[in-house]
Design brief:
The complex is a heterodimer. By secondary structure, chain A is an alpha/beta fold. Chain A has 17 helices and 18 strands. In chain A, β3 and β4 form a beta hairpin. The radius of gyration of chain A is 23 Å and the shape is globular. The chains are: A alpha/beta, B alpha/beta. Chains A and B meet through β3, α10 and α15 of A and β3, α11, β9 and α18 of B.
Chain lengths: ~525, ~575
């Protein structure tokens, strides 16, 4: 690279780094984004191999077109097409009839009514309506504004003109399990709802009540990106270049440079120095505050917070398959939609079993026997993902990080495939790729110990406390150094929050005029007094 | 009014280069790519253990000789060349090896050890080369980066005759033309080590020595003419970094690139190409875009017979175009993640082989090479593994985790094999059945030349001609140069006589080709350059003050600062 002086240097070209960079470049700042890998996108990663496309990382997009970046940069015109399968989640079982959640709630409720009777279906409908309301009015708008201390937020919601604020406050401190009990659902429906949350390795017993509704609602309104998740990052990438931004691949950062205690640029691992007025990092707290700075340059409480940072205890195992044809699942004779669901869950029908499964994972045990896996066959909705007639399939299940993955990965994949075949007897594999949790952290260096969200979702690391009180609002105690990755509020997954909030804060800090408008859903929330 | 000035169908590197030239010249350009990622034949994947990058197609990058390096400012967009001290090596079972180095005097040293006579020949070639370098580069530019013509041919003949004369070989160019590669090398060299090295280079360079004209030109150019200067590199971060550079340059100059947009049809109005319609499976299902000019970066058969179809070109033309051959040579790839660099047996003879990032083994003598070539042409997989090896991480350590390496082997195979030593085969579809077994034999061969190799292997990825076709259906039978390079499909004849009205302008009005044309698909970006030139001429925008790069100028100016041996311990 020739140019070595920028207004802003961003560390990491994952979704948040790219989003942040796109906004700042559009505001006229000179922006340089540095990516350690040879390819940008972070978890928006698509492998194209011999005509099959695979998404080894992010696949379901819970926020899709809601993310402000989609509208603000007209990503549709750059080729991003979200595909929303009508059937979103299907639970297939060897004993019972399949449960299918649709985007169309009425259709879901009608199906549930047939399976479990009108009462159970009505309970679900009530819960789902509440969850949708909490999400649309509160949780989603708050995803795109800086966080505030919990007490202030409670007060704000209590003052809100819409009483949804007060209703939400009543449940926000509950655990997912307590919330489910509130609506009195019973198995297998209860298990199916819980699993939309616990499939991410999240605990039903932590006070994460405020994100549980969001996951249930959005995992039943999720989208795929046509052609694979990487198309989303690739489109943002092009928008940045078109706005004059610079993106450098294979450029891992070694240090943040400081002058008089203020960040003033970065040094790459190969020794290249790049100067900047502002440095924004999208990586994890340990790199941010332990690796990038000398011990004396970071306030002790921040270093301590980084030391105490907790990675996710439970991670994911993936098997990515080139299939001769799309799978046909058990239960498709009763409801054909099980073959056309975004996610198909195999044999998950009992809440106690889910809890026991999570407990053993927390204890570090490798699942054997029943694996609680789920599958997605993207080519069913997006034929471009596989050669004509073939299918591109993905297995995913929860596993602990600590196992001898190098040794067992292929055998474990075979066990997963065997289980998949039990639920889809026609499964025929042309080629298989494995993705054990060790690959997650080897590929994306801030997903330490397979932490796909850059750090555990536990109350101590969520909301105003993500990553800690002094950095959750993008500013850090180190002048000119900002953080806006998945380890910062509102967190991981492809929600486009941290990078967007980061861009807003940095633009204000640098005194440049924003070229973008506040998202309509944030304006609405303000009108309702849900936020300031 | 048309939506665009120019639509380029296919975001391979030549399509991107063509689009970028035209956009920089002020045109409104749209590139439609069928895959997700541009650069179908210039890709880097990470399909297995993270950090091990595998370049499934273009690997030995000759972009350094492209005028696009300067015209499109590719360095500014992140394209970085890396090399090793020795560019190419051929290992032999007798423990020796032949080398080509970045510095011709290093090559000379190796050649002298193999044959005093051949060393002396190389010395004369070097002595001729340097005083004439500007003239030779000029000729190279005309040959590679302008439309084929008899004028260029005459100039080439003149230079070659003079070179041969100065080196004491009095065979006129027209006679060379009638020979194949094996025959011409007999006139130049005595050592089988050197002869087979040049044969292998011509072969993997897309100019099969078995054919007359094509083979003799390949061997004559890669031997005495360009032996002294050999601009082969790896791009930092993998071959796909070139695609990235082109995508960035294109986007910077305003090209709209749309991925996932396979084209179903070229639209025709009044007998002229005027736009495209996208497939129903594309990111813009069924959408149409219009343009003043359409450039197809697909190969010739799908361009005319699928995108235009008989209804526009007539049955006779469609039948004629279908005779274009894709079927000669292809590659069976075995890619390795390694815990360390291969330790070659021939390093005892020549330690430089450990600083060589690409080479070839198998084919000990010219006779064996000729036999191997003959089998290939007749659809038989050679019983002995012969082919091209790479250790890209010696040049670019970023393609593997610290201390580790990648290597791969391209076994030259017929894409539709009829026979292997174990019995008859059923053509293209056989690859799914024999891939593992053939990869085992590749590993055995590697072990023989680099003892201990198997212990280094952490993982292997197999990539067959069938996989290549699945990856990019326009590259029929997985052909990697846009269609076989045969005498009847070479230079003035390419792709087929009568298809072009120039270097890229097709018989169909307003439709141009940037694939299947001269010279042939490679990372020198020549086909895209020729297409851009002709479209620009036809639109009256060729004169641009920045559009002045010449073949090899960038390389000659920048050679000293290209890092070497970054991954050599």
């Amino acid at each position: 690279m020739h140019k070595k002086d920028f207004d802003v240097v961003i560390i990491g070209a994952g979704p948040n780094g790219l989003i942040c960079g796109a906004y700042l470049a559009s505001a006229g700042l000179s922006v340089c984004i540095l990516e350690a890998r040879h390819e940008t996108g972070g978890g928006l990663d698509t492998l194209e191999l011999a005509g099959f496309k695979y998404n080894p990382h992010a696949i379901y997009h819970m926020m899709a077109e809601i993310m402000p970046v989609y509208q603000d940069f007209d990503l549709r015109s750059r080729g991003v097409r979200f595909i929303y399968p009508d059937a979103q989640a299907a639970y297939v079982s060897k004993t019972g009839k399949p449960i299918v959640f649709y985007r169309d709630t009425e259709k879901t409720v009608a199906g549930l009514s047939q399976l479990f009777g009108r009462d159970e279906a009505a309970k679900f409908a009530k819960m789902y309506a509440d969850f949708k309301e909490y999400s649309d009015k509160i949780l989603i708008p708050y995803t795109y504004v800086p966080t505030m201390p919990p007490v202030e937020m409670v007060q704000q919601l209590n003052r809100a003109g819409d009483d949804v604020g007060r209703r939400f406050n009543e449940v926000a401190e509950l655990t997912p399990m307590e919330m489910l009990d509130l609506y009195k659902l019973s198995d297998p429906l209860k298990a199916a709802v819980l699993n939309l949350f616990s499939m991410w390795g999240l605990s039903p017993f932590e006070a994460l009540g405020y994100i549980f509704p969001l996951y249930v609602y959005r995992m039943t309104n999720a989208a795929l990106v046509c052609g694979g998740s990487h198309r989303l990052s690739s489109a943002i990438h092009k928008a940045i270049i078109a706005h004059g931004g610079t993106i450098v691949d294979s450029a891992p950062v070694a240090k943040v440079m400081t002058k008089a205690g203020k960040a003033c640029g970065v040094v790459l691992e190969d020794g290249t120095e790049i100067n900047a007025k502002v440095v924004a990092s999208t990586v994890d707290p340990v790199q941010n505050f332990k690796k990038f700075f000398g011990a004396g340059d970071v306030p002790p409480d921040l270093a301590m917070a980084a030391d105490r940072w907790q990675w996710e205890k439970i991670t994911l195992f993936g098997a990515h398959l080139a299939l001769a044809e799309p799978p046909r699942y058990l239960g498709s004779d009763v409801n054909e939609d099980v073959n056309r669901a975004l996610v198909t869950f195999l044999g998950i029908d009992n809440t106690d079993d889910i809890v026991a499964h999570l407990d053993s994972l927390e204890a570090g045990e490798l699942p054997r026997g029943h694996l609680f896996g789920h599958t997605t066959v993207t080519s069913v909705f997006d034929p471009i993902m596989a050669p004509e007639g073939n299918a591109s399939g993905r297995w995913e299940s929860l596993v602990p990080y600590d196992a001898d993955w190098d040794k067992i990965k292929w055998d474990y994949a075979d066990a997963c495939i065997a289980q998949w075949k039990e639920y889809a007897p026609n499964l025929k594999v042309i080629n298989k790729l494995v993705y054990p949790p060790t690959y997650i952290s080897a590929k994306i260096r801030n997903m330490v110990r397979g932490s796909i969200k850059q750090g555990a979702y536990i109350p101590l690391q969520m909301g105003y406390f993500r990553p800690n009180e002094s950095c959750s609002q993008v500013w850090t105690p180190i002048e000119n150094f900002f953080v806006c990755g998945a380890s910062v509020y509102p967190g991981g997954m492809i929600i486009g929050g941290p990078g967007y909030i980061g861009a807003n804060v940095i633009a204000e800090e640098m005194g440049v005029e924003k070229t973008w408008k506040t998202p309509a859903l944030v304006d609405q929330a303000r009108e309702m007094g849900i936020m300031e | 009014m048309a939506d665009y000035d120019v639509i380029v169908i296919g975001g391979g590197i030549n399509g991107l280069a063509c689009a970028t030239y035209l956009a920089r010249a002020g045109q409104k350009v749209l590139v439609l790519e069928a895959r997700g990622e541009c650069g179908a034949h210039c890709d880097t994947v990470e399909p297995g253990m993270p950090g091990f990058l595998h370049n499934l197609h273009s690997t030995w990058m000759i972009t350094a000789l492209s005028p696009a390096m300067i015209d499109l400012e590719l360095e500014r967009f992140g394209v970085e060349m890396l090399g090793t001290k020795y560019v190419y090596g051929k290992n032999f079972e007798d423990g020796k090896c032949a080398l080509q180095a970045v510095n011709p005097f290093d090559t000379l040293e190796n050649w002298k050890k193999l044959s005093a006579k051949d060393g002396a020949f190389m010395e004369r070639a070097i002595a001729f080369m340097f005083p004439h370098i500007a003239e030779i580069m000029d000729m190279l530019h005309d040959f590679l980066f302008t439309a084929p013509s008899m004028t260029v041919m005459r100039k080439l003949a003149e230079t070659q005759d003079r070179l041969n004369g100065e080196m004491g070989i009095n065979i006129p160019f027209e006679d060379i033309h009638k020979m194949n590669g094996f025959q011409i090398l007999e006139k130049f060299y005595e050592s089988d080590h050197i002869k087979t090295m040049i044969q292998s280079l011509a072969w993997i360079g897309g100019l099969p020595p078995i054919h007359k004209t094509v083979g003799s030109m390949g061997c004559a150019m890669l031997g005495p003419l360009f032996g002294p200067i050999f601009p082969v590199h790896f791009t930092r971060g993998g071959s796909h970094a070139l695609t990235h550079g082109l995508v960035k340059a294109a986007t910077h100059w305003g090209v709209r690139i749309l991925p996932l947009c396979p084209v179903d049809k070229i639209l025709v109005e009044n007998g002229k190409a005027c736009g495209v319609r996208l497939s129903e499976h594309s990111a813009f299902p069924g959408e149409t875009f219009t343009a003043k000019r359409v450039v197809s970066n697909l190969t010739v058969v799908p361009t005319f017979n699928r995108l235009l179809g008989e209804e526009h070109i007539g049955t006779d033309m469609a039948t004629y175009i279908n005779t274009f051959s894709y079927s000669e040579q292809n590659l069976f790839g075995t890619y390795f993640a390694l815990s360390g660099a291969p330790q070659w047996k021939c390093a005892e003879f020549e330690p430089g082989i450990q600083r060589t990032s690409m080479g070839y083994f198998g084919g000990e003598t010219s006779e064996e090479m000729a036999m191997f070539n003959a089998r290939l042409v007749s659809g038989v997989i050679n019983p002995k593994v012969i082919g091209n090896w790479f250790v890209p991480t010696l040049a670019d350590p970023s393609q593997a985790p610290e201390g580790c390496h990648t290597a791969f082997f391209w076994f030259d195979v017929p894409p539709e094999p009829s026979r292997w030593k174990y019995g008859p085969l059923e053509g293209l579809k056989s690859w799914d059945d024999i891939r593992e077994k053939l990869a085992d034999e590749v590993m055995d061969a590697f072990e023989q030349h680099a003892p201990g190799f198997k212990k280094l292997v952490l993982e292997r990825i197999i990539y067959t001609p069938l996989d290549m076709q699945r990856n990019n259906p326009s590259a029929r039978l997985g052909n990697w140069v846009g269609g076989s390079v045969l005498p009847e499909q070479f230079y003035l004849n390419r792709p087929l006589p009568g298809v072009l009205r120039g270097g890229s302008r097709s018989f169909f009005p307003n439709l141009y080709l940037s694939n299947s044309i001269h010279p042939f698909g490679a990372s020198w970006l020549a086909s895209g350059y020729i297409a851009a030139t002709e479209v620009a001429e036809d639109l009256g925008i060729r004169e641009q003050d920045w559009w002045k790069g010449k073949a090899c100028t960038w390389y000659l100016e920048n050679m000293p600062r290209i890092p070497l041996d970054k991954g050599v311990k």
